[in-house]
Structure formats: structure tokens, C-alpha cells
Specification:
Elements (H helix, E strand, L loop, with lengths): L1 H11 L1 E3 L3 H17 L5 E6 L1 H7 L12 H11 L14 H12 L3 E5 L7 E8 L2 E8 L5 E6 L2 E5 L2 H8 L7 H10 L8 H17 L6 H10 L7 H17 L6 E3 L4 H18 L3 H22 L8 H15 L4 H12 L14 H20 L15 H15 L1 H16 L3
Parallel strand pairs: 2-3
Antiparallel strand pairs: 1-8, 2-4, 4-5, 5-6, 6-7
């Protein structure tokens, strides 16, 4: 069982430049250009509602613009498909300007496609009489089909995909804890890269002027004496600042988790701040970080890559468990922490990636720290409270059920509301 934990950490905790939904669109476009072997004259995208809503209002690195169209144009005109979620890294100013003209001249379109997976991108590129077609499903870089001029040149084996989805069978909260206690610290030292990346973008968000400036506003309020620079406020400030920068189109990479940069940011930074404030060893920090990530990955397996449930609930629940571990909490107290988080910000909706995500992150980080502190005092919500179960793994499954079954209609309403709003700007 333990080798799979390490494999999943290395698979899910990876660098990304920009919000991962528009980046996935850019990745599809870069692949489409590669198949054509020339720059396309026109591009059509058909995407799932969740991809659409997560690309509508988020900044695209280096462009000063928001949206899927500019992301797709930049991917097609200058993206490197070999770099995956960092496909937009190193895009020149010249390419960005050409991409803006591409969008301005209506050479790229994006429409919603229904009755497809929650994460779905279909990219069709045209150049003269030649066409290319790329389809991505379920994960941001999971290409399932490539075509050139209608001829299939690559198709993913569905059995292989099913095997991949079954990798987390047999996981449990206790098995994650046991792994954290026993793993050789050298095997998880690679997590340090992610910690460094996410700390760097937090600093960028504090001292730049990005988005809603939630983190920076907190820093200024601390300097004015309106807020204290305690453990909770420092955690919220730095995590929100990192999200501010990322959502507004910073060109700095982050370490994403489960395909989300915001989830990568919010699962790491609060744990790092806790380690610094309490002065624990680097070994303790790395074990806490691995715990936080694996709890988040485990929860995500029941929710899916995209849903109407804000994924920051999962990442900050992982962070809360990491904080409890740093404070010396045992397995029972870790379970209490997760129960407390389930009784707090569960149900927060995802209405797309945008500047306001840093506000949601602020609320979730605050709830994470409070949940951990309660658990350390042996105070927790039990199975008499809503969807919480006395069995921790059952609680996690209940959150998944809420996201996948309970919020289906919510997802549809959010998308329709956003589509109706867009008509006002046409």
C-alpha cells in the first residue's frame, strides 16, 4: 500500500503556471498546433460547463487579460506541449500580442458542450484544408484522442483509464497516518520544492497589486495595528496573497495539488506557517505536509476533479490535519480535526476561478486553524451533526456524495447564471 502513497504524491503535487482550467485549454491548443505542424488560422473549443466557469474570470499569465480565448490563443501560437501544466511558461511578448490580435479578430471560439465529463476539452484547429482535433477528459493533461484530418492518430485505452481511477481503492485515513509515521524522510524531501514555490508566490502577492488584494490588505491592516500578526492571521494573509497573485495572472508558477493551484497553495502555506510559529523540525514539517496532501488527495477521489463544491474545502481540511500533526496531535485528534472541518465550510460553492477565490480561501484557512485548535482540546463534532459520521472514512465519503449527487443541480444553476450574465456583455 505504501508505495502508492508516494506515487500519488509525486503525481498530484506538480508545478503549474496559471489557473489549471485555462492552462489545460492552452495545452490542448498547443497539441493541436503540433499535430497540424503549423500555426492554425482558426480554433474552436467545446468545453464542459466546469471548464467554462473556471476560465471565465481568471487572469492568464503575462497577458493582462482573462478568459479561455486568450489562453487558447497563447497555447496555439506559442505554448510548449511538452511542458504540461507549464505550457505557457516563457511565452514572449510578441506571441502574447499576436494572441491578443487572434482573439480580437474572432479567430477563436469557445462553446459549452453538454453531457460530457465534468472536465472536458475538445479543441479543433484549422489551417487551410487541414484540421486537427484533441480531446482531454477527467484530468487536466489526460489526452484521450488526437486526430489529423479526421484520422485517429492516438486514442487512449479506456481500460487503462479505469485502472488509473481505481488506484485509491483500499485507502483509509488510518493507513495514511501509518504511512506518515513510518515513511523514510528522504522519500518525501521532494515536497520542499512545492513549499518553496508556494512561499514565493505568497510574497509576490503581498508586495504586488494583484486582484482583490486580500492578503495585502491584511498586511496593511496589521501594520496599522487593526489586526494582530498572530498564527491565524499570518496563515490567512499569506495563503490569500498567493491566491490573489495566481488568480490575477502572475507569471510565477505554483505547486498544484489534484490539478488545482489554489488547492496546492492552501494545503501547503498554513502548514508551513504552523511549523515556523511552533519551531518544529524540518522532518516534522515534511511529514505534516505529506499528511496534508494525502488527506486532500484521498478526499478528492470521492469528489472528482471539478464540481460545484469549492475544492478548497478539501485542501484546507488536509492543511488542518497537517497543523494538528505539527501540534502533536494523534490519530484520534486528526479525525476530530476532519470532523470539525466538515461541520464548518462544507457546502461552499465553486462559481468559477476568479479574483474572489482568495476570499473563499481566507474563510477556509481560518476554519482549518479553528478546527485544529478545537481538536487539540478534544472538542469535536460527532455523528449527530449533519453529514458527519463517527467513522472518519464514512465522513469523507459523505462529502463526496454531497459533491457528486447533492450538488448536481447547483452546478447547473451556477453555469446558467454565468451564461446569462455573459449575454449582457454581448
Amino acid at each position: 500500500m505504501y508505495p502508492i502513497f508516494l506515487c500519488k504524491l509525486k503525481e498530484e503535487f506538480v508545478p503549474a503556471l496559471g489557473c489549471t482550467e485555462p492552462v489545460a485549454v492552452a495545452y490542448a491548443a498547443a497539441l493541436g498546433r503540433e499535430i497540424l505542424n503549423e500555426v492554425p488560422e482558426k480554433i474552436e473549443f467545446l468545453v464542459s460547463g466546469n471548464i467554462f466557469k473556471n476560465g471565465m474570470g481568471v487572469g492568464i499569465p503575462g497577458s493582462g487579460m482573462v478568459g479561455l480565448t486568450i489562453a487558447g490563443a497563447m497555447g496555439a501560437l506559442g505554448g510548449n506541449p511538452n511542458w504540461g501544466l507549464e505550457v505557457l511558461d516563457g511565452i514572449s511578448t510578441d506571441v502574447i500580442e499576436k494572441s491578443k490580435e487572434f482573439v480580437k479578430n474572432n479567430k477563436i471560439s469557445v462553446d459549452v458542450k453538454y453531457d460530457v465529463p465534468k472536465l472536458f476539452i475538445e479543441c479543433i484547429c484549422y489551417s487551410g484544408t487541414n484540421t486537427s482535433r484533441v480531446i482531454i477528459e477527467n484530468r487536466h493533461t489526460n489526452v484521450v484522442l488526437k486526430e489529423k484530418n479526421g484520422k485517429v492518430i492516438f486514442k487512449k485505452n479506456t481500460e487503462e483509464a479505469s485502472e488509473k481511477q481505481g488506484e485509491l481503492k483500499g485507502w483509509s485515513f488510518k493507513k495514511i497516518y501509518d504511512f506518515i509515521e513510518e515513511v523514510d524522510i528522504k522519500d518525501i524531501e521532494f515536497l520542499q520544492k512545492g513549499i518553496a514555490l508556494n512561499n514565493n508566490i505568497a510574497k509576490e502577492g503581498l508586495f504586488g497589486n494583484y486582484g482583490l488584494q486580500v492578503g495585502k490588505s491584511m498586511m496593511l491592516s496589521i501594520e496599522k495595528g487593526l489586526l494582530s500578526k498572530d498564527f491565524m492571521n499570518k496563515s490567512i494573509m499569506l495563503t490569500a496573497a498567493a491566491s490573489d497573485a495566481r488568480m490575477a495572472g502572475s507569471s510565477m508558477p505554483v505547486m498544484a495539488n489534484c490539478g488545482s493551484g489554489n488547492q496546492g497553495i492552501s494545503v501547503t502555506i498554513p502548514v508551513v506557517v504552523a511549523a515556523e510559529e511552533l519551531g518544529v523540525s524540518q522532518d516534522k514539517l515534511l511529514r505534516a505536509m505529506a499528511l496534508a496532501l494525502l488527506v486532500s488527495i484521498y478526499m478528492k477521489s470521492f469528489v472528482g476533479q471539478l464540481s460545484a463544491l469549492c475544492g478548497v474545502l478539501l485542501s484546507t481540511t488536509g492543511a488542518a490535519c497537517g497543523i494538528t500533526y505539527i501540534m502533536g496531535g494523534n490519530l484520534e485528534q486528526l479525525g476530530m480535526t476532519l470532523q470539525n472541518m466538515t461541520g464548518s465550510v462544507t457546502g461552499m460553492i465553486c462559481d468559477g476561478a476568479k479574483f474572489g477565490c482568495s476570499q473563499k480561501i481566507s474563510s477556509s484557512v481560518g476554519a482549518a486553524i479553528q478546527s485544529s485548535l478545537l481538536a487539540m482540546n478534544h472538542n469535536h463534532l460527532d455523528g449527530l451533526n449533519g453529514i458527519i459520521d463517527d467513522d472518519i472514512d464514512a465522513t469523507i465519503r459523505n462529502i463526496g456524495r454531497l459533491a457528486t449527487e447533492g450538488m448536481e443541480v447547483t452546478d447547473d444553476v451556477i453555469l446558467q447564471t454565468m451564461l446569462d450574465k455573459m449575454k449582457k456583455f454581448e
